[in-house]
Amino acid sequence: xxxxxxxxxxxxxxxxxxxxxxxxxxxxxxxxxxxxxxxxxxxxxxxxxxxxxxxxxxxxxxxxxxxxxxxxxxxxxxxxxxxxxxxxxxxxxxxxxxxxxxxxxxxxxxxxxxxxxxxxxxxxxxxxxxxxxxxxxxxxxxxxxxxxxxxxxxxxxxxxxxxxxxxxxxxxxxxxxxxxxxxxxxxxxxxxxxxxxxxxxxxxxxxxxxxxxxxxxxxxxxxxxxxxxxxxxxxxxxxxxxxxxxxxxxxxxxxxxxxxxxxxxxxxxxxxxxxxxxxxxxxxxxxxxxxxxxxxxxxxxxxxxxxxxxxxxxxxxxxxxxxxxxxxxxxxxxxxxxxxxxxxxxxxxxxxxxxxxxxxxxxxxxxxxxxxxxxxxxxxxxxxxxxxxxxxxxxxxxxxxxxxxxxxxxxxxxx
Amino acid sequence: xxxxxxxxxxxxxxxxxxxxxxxxxxxxxxxxxxxxxxxxxxxxxxxxxxxxxxxxxxxxxxxxxxxxxxxxxxxxxxxxxxxxxxxxxxxxxxxxxxxxxxxxxxxxxxxxxxxxxxxxxxxxxxxxxxxxxxxxxxxxxxxxxxxxxxxxxxxxxxxxxxxxxxxxxxxxxxxxxxxxxxxxxxxxxxxxxxxxxxxxxxxxxxxxxxxxxxxxxxxxxxxxxxxxxxxxxxxxxxxxxxxxxxxxxxxxxxxxxxxxxxxx
Lengths: 415, 264
Known about the structure:
Number of domains of chain A: 2
Strand order of the largest sheet of chain B: 5-4-3-2-1-9-8-7-6
CATH class of the largest domain in chain A: Alpha Beta
Shape of chain A: globular
CATH architecture of chain B: Alpha-Beta Barrel
Radius of gyration of chain B: 17 Å
Oligomer: heterodimer
Largest sheet of chain A: 6 strands, mixed
Number of helices of chain B: 12
CATH topology of the largest domain in chain A: Rossmann fold
Distance between the termini of chain B: 28 Å
CATH topology of chain B: TIM Barrel
Largest sheet of chain B: 9 strands, parallel
CATH class of chain B: Alpha Beta
Order of helices and strands of chain A: EEHHEHEHEHEHHEHEHHEHEEEHEHHEHH
Number of strands of chain A: 14
Order of helices and strands of chain B: HEHEHHEHHEHEEHEHEHEHH
Number of domains of chain B: 1
CATH superfamily of chain B: Aldolase class I
């Protein structure tokens, strides 16, 4: 036998693959079989569509934001309102579908990683709705700064397990979820929260979020009679971005622009920008993709004001789109993102998630570049309620007494 | 034939299973870890697994994670693994490296294989690299005459056992339980069931690892496996000792008992 006998599964160009312990391969193959069947099964698709309509609140609307657009070089700016979904972000799209798949596989328990809570809350929600046991792994550092989200998940019936190893943040929560999975795979499905991980996760999670772009493309055509000039989204793991990009990939004139967590600036080394030149192709969490790593292949910790973008690796399809030149990726600093956060709140009465504020900052930059005739579609992937404490501190809006009384509720979720 | 393949054959000729012990390089220091590996060999381990500490060890439990992260914090480098290999080879201790894939990928697959071969290493165990993704490694290992030790798990289908063992060399690593290193003790019958399933597809020696935690178990597994592999147990001796000398003393004791166990 030669290695030619092993087909290279799940690749986006050179990226992706399945770098996992052998013990998990059977579960990945089982998942692949069930999700392929499900995606061609009218019953599954009907059930999912019904949940989207009656539980999530799909289709999500689009909103034009003219007062915010004044800060975007006068370009027309349209938001896709994933923030209005039940649980407050796009994450629900994926977890409901994976929840249905879990039941079809005859498994009774789900596990998930979470940074600050959005994906954990969404998974706990789906588990409650579908009667599944649920365990959420969360870095100790994040459980402390996200006490309210921990309580929220527990209210929904989930067990939240703080992770005390490594950097005790999102990356380590993913490691711990894999360790649970390899132990309990007989009855447990791992609801991975973004478009990375071993195949079929990157493709499957993308397909479950693809509805964002499918709806938005038609909504923009209906309202403006043309396609947008650019589609913008923030990129942590990359699920909301791939969700809105994917339907536009064949529209060659539509620029696809991903905004990464630029942290304190690329030159500071404290950022989460895998595509800025400091990340290099490597393997993390089961996929070959761009990774922040040192010369020995050890993962470097990322930094971002937004926990959802604070991740050292990125979905392999983004790596492919980047190298193929089909999508562009730029870092947005904490400072720029918080300015966009403030502006959207003040000009439109919408509090964005700090993650999504990176996409808004991108619109401010690209709008000025393209000018008044441009039409920009921005994925507002989540709402900012979870970020009130962080933003309040950032802008000095919390007086000391109130701050002492408040539990921190800063944002930590991978998008 | 590599030194590890050799020592496995010798053990078989003696009518017993071989004992293989794991320690990560760099814990508590590079020097001390090499001394501990040599002590382990001296105390009766037929072969050593040199662990390459990695920041995100998916299949390791708390004990090995602790040792690996302390080694990284103390500044261990990939080059230290090559150096450890060279010293073990000089001392006549057969050994393989155990490494997650990314550090090898980053170092350069062919360059890593060449450096290991040059140092006198027998090959590499790849816990998160399945043959499906291993074309480069298989090619480099063939070129440099290194053993390619892939894992087989209780969940592996007969088809995967066949295809995996077909590209494996040296020995097959049978992951005896579903779980991470050190998570729970293996039961003899479940390990035996897996070994029997693997034997249907290959004549390679089969080592049973992950879940072996005492001499009694080692003896039980030695009855049907060709090698007994311990990782968490030796690492625990170093992690839980106040001083290096004390850790190495405990390590010798434990390995001595296991070496006696595989000879029962």
